[in-house]
Amino acid sequence: MAQQDTDQQHAGVLPVDGEGYVIDTEDCEEREAAWRERGTSRPITVVGNPVLHQECADVTDFGDEFQQLVADMFTSQRTAEGVGLAANQIGVGKKVFVYDCPDDDGVRHVGVICNPKLVELPAEQRRLDDSNEGCLSVPTAYMPLARPDYAEVTGQDERGNPVRVRGTGYFARCLQHETDHLYGYLYIDRLSKRERKDALRQMAENEPRYPVVANG
């Protein structure tokens, strides 16, 4: 990465490494707690709610109202004991997600990504991981889903600065899952009809452990 680009990235909320990727593993507890202290927990929207099934609008205004939304998202994520949360999961159709997620080495990552775009990987770099996946918007349901075990996302931070984020393993799955949300896709949309039916059955047979918005 060119020096000029690296310098521009250093103007962002988080520092970046020598390759221009955000360092989101430092001061995680303090940063996440600071957001939560300003936030209000909101109920989670579940599959079937229209806001989950359409592409969200780009974030263009990073002012006080947006900062409060991000704080509410961190608080809602903690209430639901999630590792990632997209804005439409609390009923707001804006392209932003937050995360507080470990990778497969147990390293914690905390951050905010607005207007994310997944970087398409060359076929030779794609190694699929078919671990179980769940979603706060499909509560109590888990199904195996093959996804690449490495992911890169470009976008903006909570102040509008350009960012690049990368992750492996569980964190890579989180980055892909949350980006999907903002384009109107749930993980069950990537399952076969039979698997999707099974996931919805699991959801119907169990009670969520956090407040949800009832459909209809």
UniProtKB/TrEMBL annotation:
The active site is at E178. Its EC number is 3.5.1.88. Binds 1 Fe(2+) ion. It catalyses: N-terminal N-formyl-L-methionyl-[peptide] + H2O = N-terminal L-methionyl-[peptide] + formate. One of its GO terms (molecular function) is peptide deformylase activity. InterPro entries: Peptide_deformylase, Peptide_deformylase_sf. Pfam families: Pep_deformylase. Fe cation binds at C135, H177, H181. Its cofactor is Fe(2+). Keywords: Hydrolase, Iron, Metal-binding, Protein biosynthesis. CDD domains: Pep_deformylase (cd00487). The keyword NAD does not apply. Belongs to the polypeptide deformylase family. Removes the formyl group from the N-terminal Met of newly synthesized proteins. Requires at least a dipeptide for an efficient rate of reaction. N-terminal L-methionine is a prerequisite for activity but the enzyme has broad specificity at other positions. This is Peptide deformylase. It comes from Streptomyces edwardsiae. The gene is def.
